[in-house]
């Protein structure tokens, strides 16, 4: 099959996998990106100029939004041409998802013999599939990331100035999409020095993203009185100091996250002799013991034993992924294997130790590298046995699991939208002020219905109403007594979740739990409308 046909097939599979989620409700930090996009539509040179309430008090957007604005500029263009509704936005974000899968295929062609399998493994990793159902900046960053590496390697191979320039532009785009994108500069610098064994003149192209980052820093300092690049780094440091999670807890949680987010590595595992089985058993027992000792569970977890077993399995897979990167480098001793090693370990260290909490979104950038490493290991194993055809059953099983995880996340998000609409239908016609507490998607849809976010300084009158979800984010005491006047329940996927209270699932923040997703009994989401006395 030609490359063009493979790419068309990959595009079709990507669109088919994400099509069921085109009407998914906006959730988690999606509203921040949408609000910035709406601000850009009206004030294109003032992206952070709006006032939003993303905590207990209203704040300028430059405080609440800890990401650069390129993704929101993309959304503003889409919103200006079509609308800021769910389907147009999700359709627009199919493009970076397809671009990421294409980029993984193109890069894997240089680094392994099964590039299509590597692309499918990336697509059906739970972390990628769930992230691609949002309109946040993470998948757009990954698209810039893989294509920047591909173009840089192409430039080294062909000695093409155009490829270096395009790679530098892509790194700049990655940096303006998410600050982590600037880490491509040291990654490709080290890769080039090891590969070429000398400093090439083309390395000067890596100065362009640095200049872009400095320019952004200076412009935001002048415009808002704060340099936003460095402010985001200080924010991570300050919150991390305040939360104070022990390093051993971060380590085991980080391993659990990369294992759960890239559980596809487990689908390609094989143990064909007693020695391999013994190593697998010992690895699991070691990870289980460390997870049991180092990771405390919240008191409200409904099934502590099940959560610990799943966390131990994920941590084992995560440990094996890091070991695989080391093993591949030890076996190859090439610049390509060093690139994959630094890519995986750099992302892991940043996501685990430099953030105030661990999230699947910060683990996402390593997904293509892990997929390529798994295929490189698989190909070496094939050398000792008869070559096999495309591992269709492994990819199919992974796809089914990841689609279920993405569906569970979508059900939870859609429940907030549905509840907000129901409250608007019931209480919208009343001439009573309606407040709400919480944020994420619930805040977005309540504000669309003209409800007001309750702030610590809000003046509340007797008879006012307030909507509160059971999964309340950042709650604070109500200013006066209130009684329940209505309650709405919305079903969730019964045995699988990414972010439900009492389950230990913390896909969007390890503060909620030490695993990115979990198989557990989940209760329906409840939403209450209360009346102040």
Q: Can you give a write-up of this model?
A:
By secondary structure, this protein is an alpha/beta fold. The chain contains 22 helices and 9 strands. A 5-stranded mixed β-sheet has the order 4-3-5-9-6. The protein has a two-stranded antiparallel ribbon with strand order 1-2. Strands 7-8 form a two-stranded antiparallel sheet. α17 (304-332) packs across α20. The chain is globular, with a radius of gyration of 24 Å. The termini are far apart.
Return the structural class.
Answer: alpha/beta
Mean pLDDT: 88
Strand content: 5-15%
Using the alpha-carbon principal axes, give the shape. globular
Number of strands: 9
Question: Keyphrases for this structure?
Answer:
533 residues, alpha/beta, five-stranded mixed sheet, two-stranded antiparallel sheet, 9 strands, globular
Condensed summary:
By secondary structure, the chain is an alpha/beta fold.
Task: Set out the fold topology.
Blueprint: H1 3-18, H2 30-42, E1 51-52, E2 59-60, H3 61-64, H4 70-81, H5 86-92, H6 94-111, H7 115-123, H8 126-131, H9 138-158, H10 161-177, H11 184-196, H12 207-224, H13 228-243, H14 247-261, H15 264-267, H16 274-294, H17 304-332, H18 335-353, H19 360-363, H20 367-382, H21 392-427, E3 434-436, H22 440-448, E4 452-453, E5 465-469, E6 482-490, E7 496-497, E8 518-519, E9 525-532
Parallel strand pairs: 3-4, 3-5
Antiparallel strand pairs: 1-2, 5-9, 6-9, 7-8
Helix pairs in contact: 1-6, 2-4, 6-7, 6-9, 7-20, 9-10, 10-12, 11-18, 14-16, 14-17, 14-18, 16-17, 17-18, 17-20, 18-20, 21-22
């Amino acid at each position: 099959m030609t490359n063009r046909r493979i790419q068309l097939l990959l595009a079709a599979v990507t669109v088919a996998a994400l099509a069921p989620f085109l009407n998914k409700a906006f959730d988690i930090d999606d509203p921040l990106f949408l609000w910035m996009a709406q601000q850009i539509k009206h004030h294109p040179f003032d992206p952070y100029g709006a006032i939003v309430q993303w905590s207990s008090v209203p704040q300028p957007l430059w405080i609440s939004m800890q990401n650069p604005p390129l993704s929101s500029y993309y959304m503003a263009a889409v919103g200006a041409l079509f609308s800021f509704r769910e389907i147009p936005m999700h359709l627009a974000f199919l493009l970076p998802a397809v671009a990421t899968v294409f980029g993984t295929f193109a890069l894997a062609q240089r680094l392994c013999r099964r590039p299509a399998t590597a692309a499918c493994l990336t697509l059906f990793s739970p972390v990628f599939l769930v992230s691609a159902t949002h309109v946040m900046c993470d998948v757009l960053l990954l698209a810039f990331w893989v294509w920047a590496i591909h173009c840089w390697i192409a430039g080294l191979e062909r000695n093409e100035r155009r490829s270096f320039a395009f790679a530098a532009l892509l790194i700049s785009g990655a940096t303006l999409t998410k600050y982590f994108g600037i880490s491509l500069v040291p990654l490709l610098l080290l890769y080039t020095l090891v590969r070429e064994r000398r400093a090439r003149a083309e390395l000067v192209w890596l100065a362009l993203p640095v200049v872009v980052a400095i320019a952004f820093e200076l412009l935001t300092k002048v415009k808002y009185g704060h340099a936003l690049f460095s402010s985001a780094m200080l924010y991570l440091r300050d919150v991390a100091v305040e939360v104070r999670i022990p390093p051993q807890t971060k380590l085991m949680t980080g391993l659990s996250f990369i294992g759960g987010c890239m559980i596809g590595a487990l689908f390609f595992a094989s143990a064909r002799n007693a020695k391999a089985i013994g190593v697998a058993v010992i690895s699991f027992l070691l990870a289980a013991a460390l997870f049991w000792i180092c990771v405390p569970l919240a008191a409200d977890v409904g099934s502590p034993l099940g959560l610990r077993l799943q966390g131990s399995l994920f941590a084992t897979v995560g440990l094996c992924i890091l070991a695989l990167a080391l093993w591949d480098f030890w076996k190859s001793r090439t610049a390509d294997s060093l690139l994959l090693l630094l890519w995986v370990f750099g992302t892991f260290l940043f996501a685990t130790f430099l953030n105030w909490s661990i999230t699947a979104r910060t683990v996402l950038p390593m997904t293509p590298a892990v997929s390529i490493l798994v295929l490189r290991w698989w190909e070496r194993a094939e050398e000792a046995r008869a070559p096999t055809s495309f591992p269709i059953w492994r990819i199919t099983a992974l796809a089914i699991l990841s689609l279920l995880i993405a569906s569970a996340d979508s059900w939870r998000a859609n429940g907030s939208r549905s509840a907000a609409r129901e409250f608007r239908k019931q209480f919208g016609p009343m001439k009573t002020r309606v407040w709400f507490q919480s944020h994420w998607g619930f805040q977005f849809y309540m504000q669309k219905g003209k409800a007001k976010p309750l702030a610590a300084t809000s003046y509340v009158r007797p008879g006012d109403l307030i909507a509160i979800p059971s999964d309340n984010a950042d709650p604070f005491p109500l200013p006066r007594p209130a009684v329940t006047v209505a309650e709405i329940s919305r079903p969730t996927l019964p045995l699988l979740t990414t972010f439900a209270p009492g389950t230990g699932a913390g896909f969007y923040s390890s503060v909620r739990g030490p695993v990115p997703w979990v198989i557990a009994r989940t209760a329906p989401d409840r939403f209450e409308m209360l009346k102040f006395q």
